[in-house]
Specification:
Strand content: 15-25%
Structural class: alpha/beta
CATH class of the largest domain: Alpha Beta
Mean pLDDT: 89
Helix content: 40-55%
Number of domains: 2
Number of strands: 9
CATH architecture of the largest domain: 3-Layer(aba) Sandwich
Radius of gyration: 21 Å
Order of helices and strands: HEHEHHHHHHEEHHHHEEEHEHE
Strand order of the largest sheet: 3-2-1-4-5-9-8
Distance between the termini: 18 Å
Length: 328
């Protein structure tokens, strides 16, 4: 999409940047990036992944003083010992304290990302699925070796980034794309209607950031994973149309909005959500120009199912779509 619809030096916008992939790809292609997300975790990841820094000295400081262990109130987790061994909590507190003692800046942010990257690995939660399930056998009483290894990898990667790299990364809901220069391309990869909430998936990491997941959840697209009724699909479409309206105002006339989306089923009923969104987008001057179909081999749910079902009963019944909308 970036190669097809932009030129070197052009701006690429992504208001649901997630882990920062579109920002990285835009910069690699010689474009500029203005990205945002409703999650502070996504914003931190995107900033770190687009910032050149050598944090070796900062890691040495953390090694020299791992902080102090103390009681910790993990925001949004009612019972931290349900998800973490007491000794794991003490270990993570020491690491986080040492990181927070550093001067605020890119090096500290990079080490914080390395720390958050091992939180779930150190916990009693399984790492094989998005949703949190207990898997106490994998817990790490001492999180330091995992953190140190991840920090070294992160430092090696960050020091290879071009020093001139810079992405405009902001914290904002997708229904309110930050004002600024319009762009020839907006990339939009929202959660699917039958997905689970990202604030729930990343609740352990958010808690160690000091962010209550429920504050993030208020601004998320209202998807509905295995809960609620058909009305939730209407709310999802309403939210997504508000996003498209906001994005349309940030795209050049003649520019494109690339929407990665999927339909859903509810109790056996097919929900043509993509068609509804494309039809509604016309109100904002977004006309469909191209539709591509992506056939995923597995979704996470079908991968999990594959562990307990025969091959004939596994598969993905719904396709994904990439819809290119042109602003008239």
């Amino acid at each position: 999409m970036i190669a097809a619809y932009t030129r070197p030096g052009d701006l690429v916008i992504d208001p649901m940047v997630g882990s920062g992939t579109s920002a990285v790809e835009a910069l690699l292609a010689g474009r500029r990036a203005r990205v945002s997300d409703v999650s502070p975790l996504s914003v931190l990841l995107s900033r770190v992944k687009t910032t050149h820094v050598d944090a070796a000295a900062a890691l040495d400081c953390v090694r020299a003083w791992r902080g102090v262990s103390s009681d910790v109130a993990l925001v949004g987790l009612r019972n931290p010992t349900h998800w973490f061994l007491p000794e794991t909590i003490a270990s993570l507190v020491r690491i986080r304290s040492a990181i927070q003692s550093l001067e605020e800046g890119p090096a500290r942010a990079l080490l914080m990302v390395a720390f958050l990257a091992i939180v779930r690995r150190a916990s009693r939660a399984t790492t094989q699925q998005g949703r949190l399930f207990l898997d106490a056998e994998t817990a790490l009483p001492d999180a330091w070796p995992a953190f140190e290894a991840r920090a070294i990898r992160a430092i090696d990667a960050a020091r290879m980034l071009p020093p001139e790299w810079h992405a405009d990364v902001r914290l904002a809901p997708a229904t309110s794309v930050p004002e600024g220069e319009t762009a020839p391309l907006c990339i939009l990869h929202p959660p699917y209607f039958n997905n689970y909430k990202y604030s729930s998936v990343s609740s352990l990491e958010l808690a160690w950031m000091g962010v209550d997941p429920k504050h993030v959840r208020r601004e998320e697209i209202r998807e509905a994973f295995k809960v609620g009724g058909i009305d939730n699909a209407r709310r999802y479409v309403s939210d997504m149309l508000a996003v498209l309206a906001s994005c349309a105002g940030r795209v050049h006339r003649g520019g494109r909005l690339a929407l990665m989306i999927g339909d859903a089923t509810f109790r056996g009923e097919y929900l043509p959500l993509t068609r509804e969104l494309v039809a509604g987008a016309r109100e904002f001057g977004l006309e469909p120009e191209l539709v591509a179909v992506r056939v995923p081999k597995f979704t996470e749910a079908s991968w999990v199912a594959s562990q307990r079902r025969t091959k004939s009963r596994i598969g993905v019944s719904l396709h994904d779509f990439v819809v290119v909308l042109r602003r008239t």
